[in-house]
Inverse folding.
């Protein structure tokens, strides 16, 4: 329960209740796939510690482990020298660890005071909520933290930036010593973000440890004391923000220690253009996600689509495929014909295939068999009078298993029980069975182990040799060097540059990725 | 390591993969246990006539439960199956008794009306994105009201249509095997069930039904027009409710416009007891039929033992909770 004493304790924070959290050898695996390996990080009270990494690098898994949502598979957590184990988020809260989620977790139809005091309501005789005390305590807390918010306003009526402040106030009232903020500025305007960052700095001055997740380079350098970079589940390093540069951080996020050997291509790309994109511009929630993007894809060519997180890679592939429902400006020409694709069905009809970046979320039916997954886009074509024989279904699935060397017990193997690499092979196989002319690959090697990655690079090379045209979007720069004939680098939705095979290098790609970033 | 526990079942009734197989087995075992238990408790229970009464009592609920299963596997719910059944019975009454049309036309009208209403529900859900619970709750009330309006709140009798009552009460099997007078209603239930199981396991529609319930976005991104397929599934379920309407009208030799409310919950209960997941993607017709049989056996057995009807309802409620809890425990174990 909140009381005057816990507010009074606030004043002593700077002196005696600074937290030190030591993570040693933290690892996490899901059904045999390591998503986090041997991560050592120290977080101390008073510092703003930024976590960086591309999607799938392991940031959210690490945060879940720190905040008690998931236990680590290996490794230990020590707080102030004492080993701790959080079985529930509540246990982590008790140790002063509070997480602010990317999505707000406020009750929109309750007042600011009710939200701030949720779970800490002052009671009368242990039965009734003391509304007067609740409002008073909330008001005093908000004033103390320097937030000018009316405690009686419904959260629904606040702007997003103000709602963030309510979340922070709620965390502080829980006596947070370590506050985790997952991209808190992603939905804020610049001025709101400025206010928020001032608040964050102020908290750090009071001795609170801040774990800050962001991919906005300018923000990271404005606010961080230290930066920890994760990539593919590995800790790449922790460095003082004052001793590094944006270029170095990008290198840490996208480079890979293990060099990838380039795939041998036997047939050069033909001169004829299969896919031509001109002036493609698309909006999402009022923000331009693609801005005048133009390029050509030739037959048998693997064209890389590079750029940092949020540069528009996924949006580009989805728009071409029709998955974003039209509404874009610009022209897409397929095999010499101008097309207007508004649904994925349109895309499939025109010989496109999209392998999405989120294979579990929207690429597969995890509870169903390999056979059921493989036939999904094939059903209308392979069925007669609406009936598909099990024989046809199993034959198609068997072909995929053999062609892509899927390690499975058979066509009835449940897809959710395959390893990440084999799941990805099923997705690829399902689309190859449709006989596409253009393959749109979005992070096709995310979350799968090195061996399976090499197999997929080889496969892409062989498919291109057979005349398939491939758009290959990735956040890992070395991958482009391995498989791509040419590449387009996007930055903030715009084409920052096009590179030929000879021009491609880690530095060239990295520089283009940050072309329009304001630092 | 990946475990190798998946079994491929080849029987058309059971071929829905291994998911739900455990609970189906559990449900089947419970059914057998109930039969044995009631037989020991009362010598009157295991009589041919009583068994046939149980089957007859299962027929209408079973047909509606099959319809509900299809919708539930897509991840939806259909609360309108009961009043849609009544609406279709009333339509049959209008066509046969008021308009004096031939028997087959009445049957076709009832099934057609059911499919059309299902298509309307499906349009609400797929095109207008109204949550299935709300869309079919609305349809449930609309159809109840329409049944009363069309019939003038009075039952419509089928005395002028000779043979109509035989649809459910006659026995083709009894003509062949006189010692086994299984009513046609039961025969129709099994035909509907086998057809639905075939559709689910062999046809494009069936595969999309499961796929939609597993991951609708993945299906859409596979180039499937998910809206259209969803509407077709609701229409099919509606058509099956039309068959249910014919069955009940035939059994009562009348269309009772006030009937129907509450049937949807009985149907959903049978589906759930049979191991179909309310979150979609998993389920079997065989399980649903076993679920419907369990409910009928319970009601009948408790009546034979002279347990008050109020208590029968209590027991049915407890069974539903137990059945779903057993499934939860299993799924938590298998992770």
């Amino acid at each position: 329960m909140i009381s005057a004493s816990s507010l009074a304790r606030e004043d002593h924070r700077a002196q005696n209740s600074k937290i030190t959290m030591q993570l040693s050898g933290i690892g996490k695996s899901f059904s045999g796939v390591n998503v986090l390996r041997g991560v050592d990080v120290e977080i101390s009270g008073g510092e703003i510690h930024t976590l960086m990494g591309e999607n799938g690098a392991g940031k959210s898994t690490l945060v879940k482990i720190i905040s008690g949502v998931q236990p680590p598979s290996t490794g230990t957590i020590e707080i102030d020298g004492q080993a701790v184990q959080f079985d529930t988020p509540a246990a982590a809260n008790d140790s002063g660890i509070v997480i602010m989620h990317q999505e707000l977790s406020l009750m929109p139809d309750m007042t600011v005071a009710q939200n701030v005091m949720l779970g800490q309501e002052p009671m009368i005789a242990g039965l009734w909520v003391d509304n007067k005390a609740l409002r008073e305590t909330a008001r005093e807390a908000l004033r103390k933290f320097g937030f000018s918010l009316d405690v009686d306003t419904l959260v629904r009526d606040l702007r997003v930036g103000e709602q963030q402040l309510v979340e922070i106030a709620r965390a502080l009232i829980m006596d947070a010593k370590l506050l985790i903020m997952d991209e808190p500025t992603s939905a804020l305007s610049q001025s709101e973000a400025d206010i928020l960052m001032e608040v964050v700095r102020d908290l750090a001055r009071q001795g609170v440890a801040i774990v800050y997740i962001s991919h906005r380079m300018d923000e990271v350098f404005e606010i961080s004391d230290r930066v920890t970079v994760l990539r593919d589940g590995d800790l790449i390093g922790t460095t003082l923000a004052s001793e590094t540069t944006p270029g170095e951080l990008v290198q840490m996020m996208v480079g890979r220690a293990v060099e990838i050997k380039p795939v041998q291509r036997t047939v050069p790309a033909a001169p004829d253009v299969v896919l031509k994109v001109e002036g493609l511009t698309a909006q999402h929630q009022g923000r331009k996600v693609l801005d005048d993007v133009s390029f050509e894809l030739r037959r048998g060519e693997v064209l890389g689509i590079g750029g940092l997180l949020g540069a528009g890679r996924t949006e580009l592939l989805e728009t071409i495929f029709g998955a974003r429902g039209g509404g874009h400006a610009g022209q897409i020409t397929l095999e010499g014909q101008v097309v207007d694709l508004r649904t994925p069905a349109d895309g499939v009809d025109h010989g496109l295939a999209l392998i999405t970046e989120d294979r579990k979320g929207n690429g597969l039916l995890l509870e169903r068999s390999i056979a059921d997954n493989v036939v999904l886009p094939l059903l209308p074509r392979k069925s007669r009078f609406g009936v598909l024989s099990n024989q046809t279904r199993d034959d198609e699935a068997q072909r995929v298993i053999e062609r892509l060397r899927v390690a499975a017990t058979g066509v009835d193997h449940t897809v959710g029980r395959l390893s990440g690499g084999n799941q990805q092979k099923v997705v690829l196989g399902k689309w190859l069975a449709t006989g596409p002319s253009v393959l749109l690959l979005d992070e096709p090697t995310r979350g799968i182990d090195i061996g399976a990655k090499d197999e997929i690079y080889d496969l892409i090379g062989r498919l291109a040799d057979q005349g398939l045209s491939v758009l290959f979007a990735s956040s890992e720069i070395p991958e482009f060097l391995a498989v791509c004939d040419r590449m387009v680098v996007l930055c903030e939705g715009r084409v920052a540059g096009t590179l030929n095979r000879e021009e491609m290098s880690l530095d060239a790609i990295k520089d283009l990725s940050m072309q329009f970033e304001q630092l | 390591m990946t475990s190798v526990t998946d079994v491929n079942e080849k029987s058309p009734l059971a071929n829905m993969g291994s998911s739900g197989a455990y609970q189906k087995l559990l449900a089947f075992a419970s059914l057998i246990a109930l039969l044995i238990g009631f037989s020991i408790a009362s010598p009157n229970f295991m009589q041919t006539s009583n068994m046939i009464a149980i089957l007859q009592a299962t027929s209408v609920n079973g047909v509606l439960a099959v319809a509900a299963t299809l919708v539930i596997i897509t991840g939806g719910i259909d609360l309108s199956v009961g009043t849609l059944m009544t609406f279709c019975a009333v339509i049959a009454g209008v066509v046969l008794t008021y308009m004096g049309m031939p028997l087959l036309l009445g049957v076709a009208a009832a099934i057609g009306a059911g499919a059309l209403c299902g298509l309307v529900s499906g349009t609400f859900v797929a095109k207008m994105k109204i949550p299935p619970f709300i869309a079919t709750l609305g349809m449930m009330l609309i159809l109840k009201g329409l049944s009363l309006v069309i019939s003038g709140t009075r039952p419509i009798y089928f005395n002028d249509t000779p043979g109509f009552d035989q649809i459910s009460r006659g026995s083709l099997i009894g003509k062949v095997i006189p010692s086994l007078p299984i009513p046609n209603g039961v025969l129709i239930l099994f035909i509907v069930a086998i057809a639905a199981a075939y559709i689910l396991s062999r046809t494009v529609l069936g595969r999309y039904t499961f796929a939609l319930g597993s991951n609708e976005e993945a299906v859409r991104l596979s180039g499937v027009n998910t809206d259209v397929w969803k509407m077709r599934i609701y229409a099919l379920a509606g058509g099956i409710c039309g068959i249910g309407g014919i069955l009940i009208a035939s059994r009562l030799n009348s269309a009772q416009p006030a009937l129907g409310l509450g049937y949807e919950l009985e149907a959903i209960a049978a589906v759930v007891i049979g191991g179909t997941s309310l979150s979609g993607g998993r389920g079997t017709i065989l399980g649903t039929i076993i679920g419907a049989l369990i409910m009928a056996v319970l009601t009948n057995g408790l009546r034979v033992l002279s347990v008050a009807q109020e208590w029968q309802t209590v027991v049915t409620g407890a069974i539903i909770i137990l059945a779903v809890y057993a499934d939860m425990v299993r799924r938590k174990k298998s992770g």
Summary: Chain A has 19 helices and 22 strands. Chain A touches chain B through 44 residues (CB under 8 Å).
